[in-house]
TrEMBL record:
Organism: Actinokineospora iranica
Protein name (Swiss-Prot/TrEMBL): Oligopeptide transport system permease protein
Transmembrane parts of this sequence: 50-71, 115-141, 153-174, 180-200, 235-253, 288-310
Chief localisation class: membrane
Keywords: Cell membrane, Membrane, Transmembrane, Transmembrane helix, Transport
PANTHER family recorded: ABC TRANSPORTER PERMEASE PROTEIN, OLIGOPEPTIDE TRANSPORT SYSTEM PERMEASE PROTEIN APPC
Domain of life the protein comes from: Bacteria
UniProt family annotation: Belongs to the binding-protein-dependent transport system permease family.
Any single GO BP term: transmembrane transport
Claim: Transport is one of the keywords in the record: yes
Topology class, membrane: Multi-pass membrane protein
Residue span(s) of domain ABC transmembrane type-1: 111-307
Keyword NAD: no
């Protein structure tokens, strides 16, 4: 017969053990710190096929731009007129252009100039438009009105016409390849910053009305600290989405300007230059246009797809 005191003691031990295990399990199951907006967006992006596909395409293009020697050992500037306009073959997968240069090698090496122009133009556009939009949204008043009217003036300029004016005024036949590339980046940025400015201005106005900004102002924080520490981190998301999509658009803009004879030109190798060189022989050698145009289209599409995926991940309403 069991002693009631022993049974009670055993029950107490069992209960204590059970309580101890439950507490340990509860500690292990206890959730960690809440994820930030960036980490939460990254967690969501990794599960999106659109992001994975576009990201893989962009990584491939970046590797082509950084290390073209991994894909071909052919000199993209070497030309042999004896093989002019020869179609694709086992020796040259994409055939030869009008001068007898390997189209595959030129397509691989052409990614570098196109990516450099797109990235540089995007960075400059975001710096100009983002800074002006942040200041306009924070200060408001006559500063906001002045910047908005200046942006409206640039909005009224057609892109191609504005680029023609800028490039013909500042450019010339004696400019080096680096100078021409800088002028192309400058013309794209000067004609594109108003869009970024308006996006940042709207985000800054929304952030300025939040309680944490009012609290920082009440505690005596200065304007630079409020702008950089409180408003910028919470207003940058829509600008990042715009920058991702704009990067692809700027790569296409470079090709457009090169096709018109205003952008990059030989001896620079870019997809736009290749498309411009093929316009007179499209009927007899369509491969000289097909492959660089296909790579250009795929790259622009990849950045647009990536921008859409980032926009959906950063916007809780679209999840």
């Amino acid at each position: 017969m069991t002693d009631p005191s022993t049974a009670a003691s055993g029950a107490a031990v069992t209960t204590a053990a059970d309580d101890f295990v439950t507490a340990a399990e509860h500690a292990e199951a206890k959730p960690g710190k809440p994820r930030s907006l960036a980490s939460d967006a990254w967690h969501d992006l990794r599960r999106r096929p659109l992001f994975v596909i576009s990201g893989a395409m962009i990584v491939l293009v970046i590797v082509m731009a950084v290390a073209p020697g991994l894909f071909t050992s052919v000199d993209p500037t070497y030309a042999d007129l004896s093989r002019s306009r020869v179609g694709p073959s086992a020796q040259a997968w994409f055939g030869y252009d009008n001068q007898g240069a390997d189209v595959f090698a030129r397509t691989i090496y052409g990614a570098r100039a196109s990516i450099i122009v797109g990235v540089a133009a995007t960075i400059l556009t975001v710096l100009i438009g983002g800074t002006l939009g942040l200041l306009a949204g924070f200060y408001g008043g006559w500063i906001d009105g002045l910047m908005s009217r200046v942006a409206d003036v640039f909005f009224g300029l057609p892109f191609v016409l504005g680029a023609i004016v800028i490039l013909t005024s500042l450019g010339g036949g004696g400019n080096s390849a680096t100078e021409i590339m800088f002028l192309v980046v400058l013309s794209i940025s000067l004609l594109s910053w108003p869009v970024c400015m308006r996006i940042m201005r709207s985000a800054a106005i929304t952030a300025k009305q939040q309680d944490y900004v009012k609290a920082a102002r009440a505690l005596g924080a200065g304007a630079p600290r409020i702008i950089l520490r409180h408003m910028l981190p919470n207003a940058i998301a829509p600008v990042l989405v715009y920058a991702t999509i704009a990067l692809g658009a700027f790569i296409g803009a470079e090709a457009t300007l090169s096709f018109l004879g205003l952008g990059l030109r030989a001896p620079v190798v870019s997809w736009g230059v290749m498309i411009a060189d093929s316009r007179d022989i499209i009927r007899v050698a369509p491969h000289t246009l097909l492959f660089p145009a296909a790579f250009l289209t795929a790259t622009v599409l990849a950045f647009v797809m990536l921008g859409d995926a980032v926009r959906e991940a950063l916007d809780p309403k679209m999840r």
